[in-house]
């Protein structure tokens, strides 16, 4: 019966676990967790772009590991989803990589790291344009001309008048542009004022897909880098947790509850065993034997010794006219005088320490039995 109950308990637990996982898996991602995620099918995710790039033979890797950026080689495009301030280490790695770098500015107040990477030649700001407005290339860049008009931009990039040679495409207003790049040695260093046009719910609009595929799919490898500034993230309680799939918290909480339930179910019980009235008449010898087996299974030698001492003391007290409520010293003195047993020996037998082993418990039982048999 015990084995069957264990199997049933495990089966019920696993069923509950699988059910909860199914519910969590079916829960849709929210905007914040999906935004910029190349694996997300949410409207704000970028899964559609990744699928098309991979269909065209581009190997796409999504990471937040800066060491992979440092290891990138020429013939690779590093797309950077700038959702946090770029740290000095991140800026340095992007400066030194021989790969092409395309940065996507998520919010204008994250622009400081991007501007530093471009030697403060550029500035990113809101241009008060509608995201549904069409932007024409207005430049001779082959990628922009092939993509034609695009949409989904509310910010613009302005280039300092004293800056070097920059290609500026898709003018917005106030002499700003949605796409700016320069040639840095043998590589291309570009910035796009918003990644919104890459999202699943916008990629099929206008020329968005064409521009995305030409900018990100120029080389056989795309490293999609989502940097995390740990000092900023930890203050908001995020950090590496931001990379975990949605619903992870629920799964962890469920595992904690399941572990607690298993501990309560299978864990060792402490404290005195409670005797309950039996529903049927059971011979006292059988109930005593059953109680003894329970004590032995729980290795409750202290409870067993206490029961033996109490029973022996009760019978001896009744024989010699003592009351169980009498002080222990008085009981020991009276029994010592009646039985001729030294007081220290009686104090050990009735009030001594708990036995540590089964052998010590058996020896105590024998000594109490011999004591009770004295006339």
Summary of the model, kept short:
The chain is of the alpha/beta class. It folds into 2 domains: 25-242, Rossmann fold (3-Layer(aba) Sandwich); 297-372, no CATH class.
Describe this structure in words.
- With 375 residues, this protein is of the alpha/beta class.
- The protein folds into two domains: 25-242, Rossmann fold (3-Layer(aba) Sandwich), CATH 3.40.50; 297-372, no CATH class.
- The chain contains 15 helices and nine strands.
- It has helices at 2-26, 31-34, 47-55, 66-71, 88-96, 111-117, 142-147, 208-216, 230-235, 248-266, 284-297, 301-319, 328-339, 343-351, 358-372; strands at residues 59-63, 76-82, 100-105, 122-126, 155-159, 167-171, 177-184, 187-192, 221-225.
- The strands form two sheets. Strands 1-9-2-3-8-7-6 form a seven-stranded mixed β-sheet. The chain has a two-stranded antiparallel ribbon with strand order 4-5.
- The longest helix has 25 residues, at 2-26.
- The protein is rod-shaped.
């Amino acid at each position: 019966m015990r084995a069957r109950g264990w199997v049933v308990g495990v089966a019920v637990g696993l069923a509950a676990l699988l059910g909860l996982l199914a519910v969590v898996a079916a829960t849709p991602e929210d905007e914040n967790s999906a935004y910029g995620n190349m694996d997300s099918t949410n409207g704000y995710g970028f899964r559609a772009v990744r699928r098309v790039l991979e269909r065209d033979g581009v190997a796409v890797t999504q990471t937040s590991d800066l060491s992979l950026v440092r290891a990138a080689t020429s013939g690779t495009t590093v797309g950077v989803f700038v959702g946090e301030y770029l740290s000095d280490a991140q800026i340095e790695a992007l400066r030194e990589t021989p790969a092409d770098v395309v940065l996507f500015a998520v919010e204008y107040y994250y622009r400081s790291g991007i501007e530093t990477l471009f030697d403060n030649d550029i500035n990113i700001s809101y241009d008060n344009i509608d995201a549904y407005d069409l932007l024409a290339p207005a430049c001779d860049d082959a990628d922009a001309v092939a993509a034609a008009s695009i949409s989904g931009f509310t910010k613009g990039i302005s280039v300092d008048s004293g800056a070097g040679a920059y290609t500026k495409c898709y003018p917005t207003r106030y002499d700003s542009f949605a796409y700016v790049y320069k040639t840095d040695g043998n590589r291309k260093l570009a910035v796009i004022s918003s990644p919104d046009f890459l999202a699943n719910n916008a990629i099929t609009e206008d020329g968005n897909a064409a521009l995305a595929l030409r900018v990100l799919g120029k080389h056989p490898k795309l490293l999609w880098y989502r940097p995390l500034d740990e000092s900023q993230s930890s203050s908001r309680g995020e950090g590496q947790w931001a990379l975990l799939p949605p619903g992870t918290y629920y799964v962890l909480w469920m595992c904690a509850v399941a572990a607690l339930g298993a501990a309560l179910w299978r864990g060792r019980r402490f404290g005195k065993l409670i005797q309950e009235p039996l529903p049927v008449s059971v011979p006292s010898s059988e109930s005593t034997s059953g109680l003894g087996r329970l004590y032995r299974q729980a290795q409750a030698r202290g409870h067993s010794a206490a029961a033996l001492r109490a029973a022996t003391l009760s019978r001896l007290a009744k024989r010699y006219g003592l009351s169980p409520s009498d002080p222990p010293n008085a009981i020991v003195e009276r029994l010592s005088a009646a039985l001729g047993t030294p007081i220290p020996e009686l104090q050990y037998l009735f009030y001594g320490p708990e036995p540590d082993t089964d052998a010590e418990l058996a020896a105590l039982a024998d000594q109490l039995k011999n004591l009770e048999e004295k006339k």
